[in-house]
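Issue 218. Parser rejects a valid record. Input:
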Amino acid sequence: MTAPRVHVVDHPLAQRALCAMRDKTQSAPLFRSTLHYLSLFLVSEATKTLTYDETPFDASSGTLPTFSIRERIGVVPIWRAGSGMLDAALAILPEDTVVHHLGMYREAETLSTVEYYNRLPKSCHVDSVLILDPLVATGGTSSAAIHTVEEWGVPASRVTLVSVLATKQGLDYVRRQHPEVTVVVAGYQDELDEKGIAHPGLGDVGDRLYGTEL
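Output the parser choked on:
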């Protein structure tokens, strides 16, 4: 996870899932399951450059190699929306993967990011981090999360931002602030209104996940 660039997961099934998530009539249970499904593609792409060691073991048909991942991996979902991607990440990643949560929200008037929860340990004990943030609109929340992880002790080149959808403005902002970070998305678009809302986007992902839309 070291390549400093943006990866778009353009697999037809991933794109089909992204289109389904844009459907505003989709129920909360279906939205959750679609996000889980799409996150499997995204996390797979985000981890394809992990390094590993091969160790031989005796199988029923002879000696075969077993693979052990060298990196210690941390997953940091941004509450609330990022939690909808967490189960998919843990389904793919090694069993010793650790999870640390960040709680952030965007202040409505100024669009500035407020951090209200941080469960990163005092000392950094991982080699690389996946930050889970389904929607990168202005890029402020994602950038703030990356900054927090960097301050914790993970270099930018070992951080991957995993997102479903990003705007061009949001991606540009993240790239300016953190040029060495890898970004994995299913899609991106140009439109962002004066309130910092992506159109056509995904809506409020946290509300749609849990059926709490007003």
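Fixed in the parser; the record now loads. The first strand starts at residue 6 and ends at 8.
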